[in-house]
Amino acid sequence: MTKQLDLLDIQGNVIRAYGRFGYPVARYAFLNIRHGGRARAFVGALTRKVTTSVDWGDGQGQIPQPNWTVNVAFSYQGLKHLELPRASLVGFSSEFIEGMKFRRDILGDDGPSAPAHWDPIWQHNHETRDKDVHIFVALNARLPALLEESYAWLKDLIAEHSDGVRLLGGHLGDDGAILDYQDVKIVMEDGKPTAKEHFGYTDGIGDPVFEGVSYDADRVNGRGKQLENGEWAPLATGEFLMGHIDEAREYPPAPSPVLLARNGTYMVYRKLHENVATFDAYLEEHGKKFPGGKELLAAKFVGRWRDNGAPLVKAHDQASKEEFDAKLAAADAKGRDKLLCDFTYDDDMSGAKCPFSSHVRRINPRASLEFTRDEQNPKNICGAFEISKGAFDTPGALANRRRLLRRGLPYGDVRDRSRDDGNHGIIIMMINADINRQFEFVQQQWINYGNDFKAANDKEIILGNHSTDDEFPSKAVIQVDPKGDQPPYFLPKIPRLVETRGGEYFFVPSMTALRMIAMGVIDPT
Questions:
Q1: Rounded distance, CA 412 to CA 80, Å?
Q2: Which pLDDT does position 380 carry in this prediction?
Q3: According to the model, what pLDDT value does residue 505 have?
Q4: Measured between alpha carbons, how far is 435 from 96 in angstroms, rounded to an integer?
Q5: Nearest partner of 392 among 370, 361, 363, 365, judged by Cα
Q6: Residue 513 pLDDT greater than 90, yes or no
Q7: Residue 311 near residue 304, CB atoms below 8 Å
Q8: Rounded mean pLDDT of 380-386?
Q9: What's the rounded mean pLDDT across residues 81-101?
Q10: Is the residue at 339 inside a domain?
């Protein structure tokens, strides 16, 4: 039996995606450190309010669910100005030290996604001492009024420590307004809350599960790792938290001392603008030509149907979609979870149901990179790497090392779907123990390149940094059954559907580490 994690030591946003726990609104604030010692006093005061991962409830030994939550993270420059010892600082990963802006070429943040187009707050990172983003504070609330209450509390706390920290402005809002914070909220339809983002897809399905957290057995199916016998198990804790064994049966690289790193993790914060007019126009144009119509084509873009998230591997056409919808309507919450998440690509190795360039297949290919299954000479093939079957004990071992916990919510409202220039998109925060091996690999090799999927340089359809120039236009192939007589459908000149508007890499410390940072007692010796 896997030992239960110390949930009192882990920040709450690591274990919980708050939007699914009754927190439809949130506000993200970013601070600059003016004086290290006085900033540590601010961190100490903030830490006393930070929300942990401990179970909520009214039973004995549990903590009642709060009306609003508080969580905190630091950029490398922030940790540096909090005066952590150099011996500790050099133990952080090079990509975290360099920061997201410096890594733009690896991430494909070019053209309209280049830093020159980012929100003002992200324009000066690592370049201007008094404009650097050092501290990230996330406030999630049950109601808009409670969000304002939490923000008033934070502003008062900042005012009390104004000699140590200051709030940074520079977030682009509606009608060109520049705000002191980034607001996010769930998308409403006809006055009702939804789980959708601005392109219309049902979102937030299939977040990974890992060892040490109590999950219903049914929740592990499809979200964990697939075993040789077809069963599912939680991923190793070290894929998401430092100080724990990962899928390679090693401890992920981490700074010293152990108490600084253990139960901490890295968070990738990205503000992504959605070009809804371009998306709608492109979908409308090709939906008229695509066999099966516009909604099936939209499902091919992502790998799930827009209305309810039905996976294409279970509902690959209109008839099977109707059957799936009937099962979904009749199922309870656990049954719905199983229907939406418990699947593999074992019966779709050709990509005829779920294309190789679709979003969900690129983000989590499960065991589908195992292209050859010759019983005489079984092997896994992933791009240029060929690994014997006995090298790992799970069919999707290569994919299991790229998993990401996803947090965040959409921002803004789409006032006019005929325009791209509104204030609308999604704030995505990805949690992982190794930024390079997990987030950056997925972004570079699976989103912006297709070789591992035998798709050459075809990018992932939704998030890819597409180019429509005449020399190197983006394209994608919608595969069909190789035994049938229908030709594949080619998507030509895919436009840039999503553009980066800023972001940074952060370290999310444990509660123990937060207290040590606040007291200035980090000792790597």
A1: 33
A2: 44
A3: 98
A4: 7
A5: 370
A6: yes
A7: yes
A8: 43
A9: 97
A10: yes
The structure tokens 């699947």 sit at 343
Residue 111: left (phi > 0), alpha (psi -120 to 50), or beta? Answer: left
Q: What are φ and ψ of residue 428, in 5° steps? A: -115, 130
Q: What is the mean pLDDT of residues 5-10?
A: 96
| Domain assignment of residue 320, yes or no | yes
What is the C-alpha separation between 97 and 75, in angstroms, rounded? 8
User: Does residue 35 lie within any of the structural domains?
Assistant: no
- Partners of 135 in the beta sheet? 31, 74
Residues of the chain with pLDDT > 90: what percent? 83
Going by their DSSP bridges, the two strands 171-172 and 265-274 should be labelled as: unpaired
Beta-bridged to residue 381, according to DSSP, are 370, 386
Task: For Cα atoms 390, 392, 397, give the angle at the middle one, nearest 5 degrees.
Answer: 140
Write down the pLDDT at residue 277: 98
CA–CA distance, 294 with 277 (Å, rounded to integer)? 15
Q: Which of 241, 166, 169, 254 is nearest to 211 (CA)?
A: 241
Strand partners, 411: 425
For the chain, the domain total comes to 1
CB-based contact 444:107 (threshold 8 Å): yes
List the structure tokens of 44.
Answer: 């100490």
Return all residues near 283 (Cβ < 8 A) that are at least 6 apart: 294, 297, 298, 301
As a whole number of angstroms, the distance between CA 167 and CA 178 comes to: 13
Q: From CA 292, how far away is CA 45, in angstroms rounded?
A: 58
Smallest CA-to-CA distance from 350 within 299, 312, 401 is with 312
89 Cβ partners below 8 Å, 6+ apart?
A: 76, 79, 80, 97, 255
Crossing angle of helices 276-287 and 294-302, in 10° steps, is 120
3-state secondary structure of 409: coil
- What is the span of the domain harbouring residue 451? 285-405+434-501
Amino acid identity for residue 314 in this structure: K
Determine how many CB atoms are found less than 10 A away from the CB of residue 80: 18
- Residue with more model confidence, 128 or 169: 169
pLDDT tens-digit readout, 324-370: 999 999 999 889 999 999 999 999 999 999 999 999 999 999 988 86
What average pLDDT does range 255-271 have in this prediction?
97
Residue 314 is assigned to a structural domain of this protein: yes
Q: Do 398 and 380 form a contact (C-beta atoms < 8 A)?
A: yes
**Mean pLDDT, the chain, as a whole number?**
92
Per-residue pLDDT averaged across 314-333, rounded?
95
Residue with the two structure tokens 């444990």: 510
The answer to whether 486 and 499 are in contact (CB under 8 A) is: no
Question: 212: alpha, beta or left, given left = phi > 0 and alpha = psi -120 to 50?
Answer: left
Using the CB atoms, write b or e for 429-439: b if 16+ within 10 Å: bbbbbbbbbbb
Lowest mean pLDDT among 159-168, 240-249, 384-393, 436-445: 384-393
Token pair for residue 363?
Answer: 């983000």
pLDDT > 70: percent of the chain: 94
Residue 121: what are its φ and ψ, rounded to 5°? -60, -25
